[in-house]
Structures are given as structure tokens and as C-alpha cells.
Amino acid sequence: MASTAEAAALGARRDTERGVGVAAAIMVIFLIAAPFLLYPVFLEKALCFALFACAFNLLIGYVGLVSFGHALFFGWASYLAAYAAKSWGLPPELAILTGTATAAGLGIVAGGLAIRRQGIYFAMITLALAQMMYLVALRVKLTGGEDGIQAVPRGHLFGVFDLNNEMTMYAVVLVVVLAALFLIYRIVNSPFGEVLKAIRENEQRAISLGYNTDRYKLLAFVLSASLAGLAGSLKAIVFQLASLTDVHWTMSGEVILMTLVGGLGTIFGPVVGAFVIIAMENYLAPFGQWVLVIQGVIFVLCVSLFRRGIVGELANRLRVRL
Amino acid sequence: MVEIFGIPSQALFGQLLLGLINGSFYALLSLGLAVIFGMLNIINFTHGAQYMMGAFVAYILLQYLGINYWAALVIVPILVGALGIVIERLLLQRLRSLDPLYGLLLTFGLALIIEGVFRNYYGSSGQPYQMPEALQGGRNLGFMFLPNYRAWVIAFSLVVCFGTWFAIERTRLGSYLRAATENPTLVRAFGINVPRMVTLTYGFGVALAALAGVMAAPIYNVSPQMGSDLIIVVFAVVVIGGMGSIMGAILTGFALGIVEGLTKVFFPEASNTVIFAIMIVVLLVRPAGLFGRSV
Q: Which of A135, A212, A233, A279 would give a disulfide with A81, using CB separation of 3.0 to 4.6 Å?
């Protein structure tokens, strides 16, 4: 009996892995071919946001924690990476590391505070903390206030690869983002990830099983913040710019939208969502303020009619987990 | 000139007054959030946009139809509250059985739509709203100058806040409401139409936000982003106070307004972050919030 169940579970797992493998192969092939068909800068931007959305999804999709303040980590990492590259003259790899470490530090503080409350309060606390740090960014010298940090040098990666070459830059972004996505995949499928999902399903139960859920939640929060920071740092190097837009609450809203459109709690959903939203913003840029309205409409439609998102819906049709 | 702690009394009391005004808005808005949260179990992210709508509808009524402030105080909450009822019936009601997170996301989307629409028509600069004639000017109290309109805002919002508290805590209708918050199924079994009560509660909470918007119109510029900045501060206020108690929401709102006003006198750089800083301290010392039951 037990062995049948085990075999079935193993089979299901193998099916899942096959589905994910096929989807990952399609994604990688697309991303390698893409710069020859589309603008590399557009793809670099979409990739940075894909990583940002996946980092956010780690919390909302797998731990059930809704952070409304992820712009805090994205934006401040981007500031510190830009500052390190420009004012300290650090090479890009160290600048990105500086940004990511900043986000990790902020993640420890913000996460430590926010997990003291549950559910809806968690969202409000993260939003308030992010707003506070936005107001700080508006004031302090380091961020350059309204101007932001402009003309950040891209530099040479490891002193060898010239990032001013757009194709080299794209390759670097692609490698970093894919590596981070693989890391996220490994995290959610590790024993640690299973505990996170258990907390999402029933925190009381996880506590009664002897798990110190606060420590798990904090670690997941810090991982998510650091990866969001990695995305922000990359973005600062790619666009040679760090600005107030990246720390504003609308950015936190945007990453939620990407994840929601792609599919909460799916591996590939946030990537697809990021590409869809970034493409949409590109095409709608001439319509100015209507972008806000359209984003709002997509939010309402997704929540009312399309809660699984694009990838979630696809996975459901194909009966696989993506 | 009288000085207190080395600060001229005029400046000190002037800032205290401004703090009380801000506190009135914090109290009205967090009260609405708490009432809605109690019945619908969602955080109404649209609250800031509905407050902004209140101010804008008052502005539009005066500008195009010549309807004055006093009429607006009655008409605007009814109009915006009615829109809230439509939103509840069409959209929020379908989410009742789902994770409250979806309610938050939906109302966030609605806030973006409303703010975006007003930005399209009015840009991001503010529109001035004429103060009603009866409340122009002010009086000298000796230690400070008290503008009539500001005194009115404080007095009126106190009346509205305590009226709401009374209606919920001390009347029969309020007792139904509180009972339905605790156990909707049981209250329905007693023959009370709970879904209708939920809809009307949402409408009422939204009307409170709109009323605050009308009162704010003559003080602040009427602008599309006036709501989104405020609502985040109000969220911090709600985290500090906890949403379990109506009186708690009112007291926290006023108290934080005063603290903010005082910070403006003694340490102006921190005045717009002080509420967030207090939130952090409260989370460290008393995670459930000042008036909250532990969640």
C-alpha cells in the first residue's frame, strides 16, 4: 500500500520536474535568441523585473506573506550599487554585491519588524516602512534627492568583460538572473521550502509540529529582500541610473501586479508577468497617465476573474505544475 | 512674547493646532478603515482615493454647479458612499470566501484607477477650494491666533467620531453590527440581513472618508495624489492603534496628529517620518498595537 502511494508520489514528482524542465528549456532558448530579435535594453529591463517579481513571489506565493514594500529593497539596493560604482569607483561585480548586501541588511530589519504581526497588518507594516525609507531617500545626500544618481559607469566585469558592449551586458544579466531563478527554484523545492509552504497552509499547525515559524519567515523574508536587491543593483548598472521611482510605493505595486498577472506561487509566472507588464508599459508610454488606470484595471480583472494568472491557468489546463 | 521651552507660544500652539487638524483626518480615516475591517475583514486600500474623491467632488460641485460647502458636506458623502456600495456589490462581495489578500489587491487596483482618472483630467497640481464665508477669519485667544475654519474642522470631526462610536457601541443597530462581526452565521440565523449590513457598512466607511475629503478641501490643495500619501500614514496609525477598537482608532488618530505637530516644532526634519518611527517602537514594545487584541 505504502509503496504504491510512494511510487505515485514519485511519479507525480517526476512529472512535475519534467514539466518544469521543458518550460525552463523553452525559456532559456527564447532568452538566448531574443537579443537578436528584440532590443537588448528592453530585455535587460524585463529580466531585472522578472528577477524582482520572482523574489517577491518567494514570499507571497510560498510563505503567503504579502509585502507591500518591496520597492524598499529594490530601490535602496539600486542606490547603493549606483553609489558604489560611481563615487567609490568599485567594479560592477562589487557594486552589485554592495547593493545586494544593503538589501539583505534592510531585509533583516524590516522583516524582523513586520513578522511580529500577521496577515493584513504585515502588508501595512511593510508599506509604511518602505514609505518611511522613501521619505529618507528624498532627504539624504547619498541618493541625490530628486535627481537620483545619474551616469553610473557600467565598467568592466572582473576587469575583463566590457559592459558598455550591449550584448556583453545582456549576457551578464541573463546569466545572473537565470542563476538567481535556479536558486529560487531550489529554495522552494528544498526541505526548507516545504516548511515555508506548510506555514502558508497552516501556521498554527507548523508551530505545533515544532517549527520555529518566525525564524523560517524571517529567513524567507531576507532571501526575498536580497534577491530583490540583486535585481535593483543590476537595474542600476544596466540603466546607469538610480532614482526615486525605484523606491516609491508604485514600484511595490508594480511588482505585485507582475506576479499576479503571471500567477502567484508558480515558478515561471512572475517571469511571464514581468515581460507582459514591461512590454505593456513600453507600448503605452505615449498615453502617459493612462498607464496607472490600465494597471488598476488589470489588477481588478485579475483579482475578480483570473486569479490563477497566465502561467497558473496554463498549468491548470495542461495538468502540470509550472 | 510668551515662550515655552524656548519656543514662542504662537508657533508652538500654531503647530499643535495643525497637528490636531491632521489628527482629525487620521482619526476619521482610521475609524472608517476599522469599521470596514470589522465587517468585511479587508483593508480598504481605496480609502485614500475615496478621501481624494470627496475633496474633488466638492470642488466640482462648487466650480460647475455652484453648490456650496455646507450642501457638499451632505451631498458628497452620499454620492461617494453610493459609489462605494456599488463597488462592494459588484466586486468585493465575490471575494468574501477568499483570502483577505485578494480584497487588498482589488482595492489597491481601484485606488490606481481612481487616482489615474483624476490625474488625467486635473494634472498633478492642486486646485484651490474657496473657504465658506461664514468660517473665514479667526479670533485671537491671547496666546495664539485661532482661524475659525480650523476650529470648525476639529470640532466637527470630534462630533462625527464620537457619533460613530456612540452608534456602534451604544445603539441597537450597533449591537447587531458588533454581533455580526463576531459571528455572521449566527446573526443571520436570527433573521438579520447580514450581507446588506456588510454593504451598508462599507458605504458608511467610504462616506466617512469622503466627508474627511470635503473638510480637507479648503485647507489643503485639492489634488489627485492627496489620498495616496495620506493613506500610507493612516495605515501606520492603524498598525499603532490596532483595529480592534473604535475608540482606540479615534484616540490614536488625534494623539499621533498632536505628536506630529510637536515634532514639527522641535525637530522639523523628522516631522514626516515620526509616525513611522512610532510604529516601529510600538511593534518592538507592544506588537499587538496599543488597543489591539493579539492577533
A: A233
